[in-house]
Hints:
Elements (H helix, E strand, L loop, with lengths): L1 E4 L6 E5 L21 H25 L3 E6 L7 H9 L7 E5 L5 H4 L5 H4 L8 E5 L8 H4 L17 H20 L2 E9 L2 H13 L9 H7 L2 H15 L6 E5 L3 H17 L10 H16 L10
Parallel strand pairs: 3-5, 3-6, 4-5, 6-7
Antiparallel strand pairs: 1-2, 2-7
Helix pairs in contact: 1-10, 2-10
Amino acid sequence: xxxxxxxxxxxxxxxxxxxxxxxxxxxxxxxxxxxxxxxxxxxxxxxxxxxxxxxxxxxxxxxxxxxxxxxxxxxxxxxxxxxxxxxxxxxxxxxxxxxxxxxxxxxxxxxxxxxxxxxxxxxxxxxxxxxxxxxxxxxxxxxxxxxxxxxxxxxxxxxxxxxxxxxxxxxxxxxxxxxxxxxxxxxxxxxxxxxxxxxxxxxxxxxxxxxxxxxxxxxxxxxxxxxxxxxxxxxxxxxxxxxxxxxxxxxxxxxxxxxxxxxxxxxxxxxxxxxxxxxxxxxxxxxxxxxxxxxxxxxxxxxxx
Length: 305
């Protein structure tokens, strides 16, 4: 695990690459002191979004790579707000955001990765998964009874080998993504049990947010430590140098969003994107266009000047 300080955020992001044994309980959910006021945060986020828009246009034009951003975290960790703030203003032609809820009846009959494979970005695009193929290795780890809906034996989930197979499938899948030039950024906004309860209570008090709150959310909040253990095991097993995890201090939404933006921009810059160079046919077409424009012909065929 490495700690990377960003010059733009003045905060620390925990980049977990594998080969170590990170313990989420030991990682901070908040920064020690406020890093910026609201105005500074907005200025920095505008800068990141300008850079991201420029890189997204170049990614689309280059056409040789795609980017998949996985945002995975506990309830009330700030996933929706993070996605809105980081990717707001991006050209929708090259951005697709998918929010995964529980699988429907037809999806339960498929192999467990297929619903996610159908949503992978094509080259030139950015795809964002709000929750992801990690759900079975996380939520079902805490609620093994959910596995029965997939035709699996919940009792088998008590065996560590059962989950090791899932983790192996995930590592293989992420190698497959890399082999197909789909860059991957995995973000976990890490929220504390205390902050999670506060946010759930705030939803209850707001008519604009009550629709987001379910009894299951509160039941899961009571099992916060079980989810923390599941996330710790999962991150340990699936963090690799090619597909690291970024654990963000989720109690501070502004910090988490800036760190997420920094990780996404850094990943795109690492692709060494470039504007496409015209081949001979395209060069000839551009020459014809140039000659047409220089002739000054308007839409009725009249010459100007």
